[in-house]
Amino acid sequence: MNEALNQVPAPNALTLRPASTCRWDLVSLGEVMLRFDPGEGRIVGARNFRVWEGGGEYNVARGLRRCFRLRTSIATALVDNPVGRLVEDLILQGGVDTSHIHWQPFDGVGRDARNGIYFLERGFGVRAGLGMMDRGHTAISQLKPGNIDWDALFGTEGVRVFHTGGIMTALSEDATEVVREAIAAARRHGTLVSYDGNYRASLWKSRGGRERSVEVNRTILPHVDVFFGHEGDVAAALGEDAHRPAWHTLDTFAPMAERVAAEYPNLKILATTIRRPHTANRNSWSAFAFANHNAIAGLAFDDLDILDRVGGGDSFAAGLIYGLVTGKDLAWSLNCGIAHGALAMTTPGDASMATLPEVERLMGGSLPGTLR
Predict the structure, then answer these.
(1) Residue 368 in this model has a pLDDT that exceeds 70
(2) Where are the alpha helices (DSSP H) in the chain?
(3) Which residues lie closer than 8 Å to 59 by C-beta, 6 or more apart?
(4) In the predicted model, what is the mean pLDDT of residues 105-121?
């Protein structure tokens, strides 16, 4: 590995490929599912659902395109049937490029492959939200190394930031290898690599659970530049108990982040959201970041009203990446992520509906009484 990659420069000194030499500011690799939303009701008894597209890695690309007007694309796989084409149409409405979708033929019934769907109740007050995944044997879980020409994407087209994460990695053994293949190609071509730990117990259940996810992530993190993760993901990066008590102060976060940086000197930035639910629709919300042996705290919302919490962390990642790509310092980038994530949770669906002026107003404290 190049010795320069073992240094941890200040965030405003991140080495990014010039925008003029790249077709894409960011490309994400991950599954895009069709979400069924019963609105204010419950799944059981619902007769009508609103549909959205969503997925952890995809939500980052969509937020960067819609809110921040960057050029983004999604690398994914779908079955070529009306449901797959509906997902494609929703992606296109979100402004994300679809030229890197791997289309798998439909066999008529879905035995060979299918498109992932999920159902989500938002919850309210003392009633928690409820999600139900139906994503077994999906097209992207069967994606194999070699199915996507990564050298053409990162080399010929050019990409400034590549984003993927633990959800994609968890889908199958082949999916894990596709992540490794893509990251290796990104690094060959000088693309910044962003990775979100995003542990999902249901996805790892048949693959060895949290222990196996830790093992996989610890082999991937040495090749990552920017790492997103909540406190469990960060502890797991060190092979430690991911169920440890959550941190809520900078003094408890900083020592853990320093240890992660020592184990993975390639990491340039570590960022984590901090949220504590009061009810299903009220949270405290903030985030910490670590770079160059310095830990910082961002804006803090003590009592944030939430309409739909799904995608808040992805929108946080999108806002922080926007700051980095546009040359802002870490504090500005962190606050941009916090504000964007907060706004994303005020609208339905996985993806952000915020605008950059709204994000900047919230960063400036335009809602007195909600910021401390």
Answers:
(1) no
(2) 56-66, 82-93, 150-151, 166-170, 173-188, 201-204, 209-220, 231-237, 250-263, 312-325, 330-344, 356-363
(3) 311, 314, 315, 318, 350, 351, 352
(4) 95
Residue 50 within a domain: yes
- How many separate domains does the chain show? 1
- pLDDT, residue 337, reads 98
**Other CB atoms within 10 A of residue 51 CB:** 15
Full 3-state SS string of 39-99:
CCCCCCCCCCCEEEEECHHHHHHHHHHHCCCCCEEEEEEEECCHHHHHHHHHHHHCCCECC
Tokens (6 digits) for 26? 């960011």
Whole-angstrom distance, CA of residue 26 vs CA of residue 23: 9
- Cα separation, 249 vs 220, whole angstroms: 28
Digit-coded pLDDT (tens) for 28-57 = 999 999 999 998 899 999 999 999 999 999
The answer to whether 8 touches 15, Cβ cutoff 8 Å, is no
Q: How far is CA 284 from CA 248, 333, 341, 371, in A?
A: 10, 20, 12, 10
Q: Does any domain span residue 174? A: yes
Backbone region of residue 214 per phi and psi (left: phi > 0; alpha: psi in -120 to 50; beta: other values): alpha
User: Per the structure block, which two tokens stand in for 20?
Assistant: 């003029």
Classify residue 301: in a domain, yes or no: yes
Instruction: Please tell me what DSSP assigns to residue 194.
Output: E
Q: How confident is the model at residue 243 (pLDDT cuts 50, 70, 90)?
A: low
> pTM here?
0.92
CATH code, 337:
3.40.1190.20
Does residue 112 lie within any of the structural domains? yes
**pLDDT above 80 for 11:** no
How far is Cα 51 from Cα 91, in angstroms, rounded to an integer? 12
CB 228 within 8 A of CB 271: yes
Domain of 359, in residue numbers = 15-363
Alpha carbons 341 and 33: distance in angstroms, whole number: 20
Letter for the amino acid at 197? G
Backbone angles phi, psi at 311, to 5 degrees: 90, 0
- Which residues make beta-bridge pairs with 27? 73, 162
